Amino acid sequence: MLSIGKISDPDEIKKILPVISSAWGMPNLAAAFKDTINAMRFHGGLVAAAYDGEEMVGMQFSFPGYRRGKTYLYSHMTGIVENKKYSGIGYQLKLYQKKWALENGYDLIAWTFDPIRSLNAHFNMKKLGAISRTLIPNFYGTMEDSLNAGIPTDRLVAEWWIKDQKLPAYTVDAITIDSSDADSQPVIDEVTSSTPKTVKVSIPYDFSKIMSNDMQAAVEIKKRLSSILVRLFSLQYSIVDFEKREPSSLYVLTTDQPLRSQKIPNPFI
């Protein structure tokens, strides 16, 4: 008996791929990915690239998003070729994206990122000035690439309010929760009961090294971090800053209003 329904499980979405391959006689799904990006571009999205001479060395694409009555630009992917990473190209692409978004009537650009990766967190929270108030568990389902294989794909939603200004956080007497500490529950309970204005959450600076040495420990840290952030978000904390340090970096969260304008509802709850 035939039934038709909406798919929400990211692992169920994987089953669509062989159907696409069969329906279009397309053994190489890279062609389908290219066609999808082109359709996004034509129907209101942005596809941009960075060139070094005639060589394309970076790309990004975005498309309109809509949740809880809010329209925004969803930045799905920004990537730089391996030998040009950490050279400032990604930042220039994001500035181009911001300019395009402003010209096309957006005040919010959003994307997801892995909360356990300190360099991404620093780029998003510190350099660009995004905030985050939402964690989505297992956003992509099971992934098999070198960065994500074997660990949960929990993701933070970055909110880049491009017409607003982020307020500095009050960090005096902040309580720190260590996501690498299996005995961190008493500190979490203290924060839950006292709700201090500012909380810091530490993460390993080099998570890839932990994955290489002890995958089980890496999984436990990732799960603990997600649990901590979900608890803090439920207490109305927002991530407003990031302190990049070795061997541990720090998210900075506050219960204060994170933006200079009036309180903005969270469309990603």
Written overview of the protein:
- The chain is an alpha+beta fold and 269 residues long.
- It starts with 9 loop residues before the first helix and ends in a 15-residue tail after the last strand.
- It has helices spanning 10-13, 16-24, 30-42, 89-103, 118-127, 185-194, 207-213, 215-234, and strands at 46-52, 55-67, 70-80, 108-113, 135-136, 155-161, 175-178, 198-204, 238-243, 248-254.
- The strands form 2 sheets. Strands 1-2-3-4-6-5 form a 6-stranded mixed β-sheet. A 4-stranded mixed β-sheet has the order 7-8-10-9.
Provide mean pLDDT, rounded: 94
Cα end-to-end separation: 36 Å
Q: How can the largest sheet be summarized? A: 6 strands, mixed
Considering DSSP H and I runs of 4 or more, what fraction of the residues is helical?
25-40%
Strand content of the residues, in percent? 25-35%
* N-to-C order of helices and strands: HHHEEEHEHEEEHEHHEE
Across the major sheet, the strand order is 1-2-3-4-6-5
**Beta-strand segment tally:** 10
Number of helices: 8
Low-confidence stretches: none
- Radius of gyration based on Cα positions: 20 Å
Question: What overall form do the CA principal axes indicate?
Answer: globular
Please give the structural blueprint.
Elements: H1 10-13, H2 16-24, H3 30-42, E1 46-52, E2 55-67, E3 70-80, H4 89-103, E4 108-113, H5 118-127, E5 135-136, E6 155-161, E7 175-178, H6 185-194, E8 198-204, H7 207-213, H8 215-234, E9 238-243, E10 248-254
Parallel strand pairs: 3-4, 7-8
Antiparallel strand pairs: 1-2, 2-3, 4-6, 5-6, 8-10, 9-10
Helix pairs in contact: 7-8
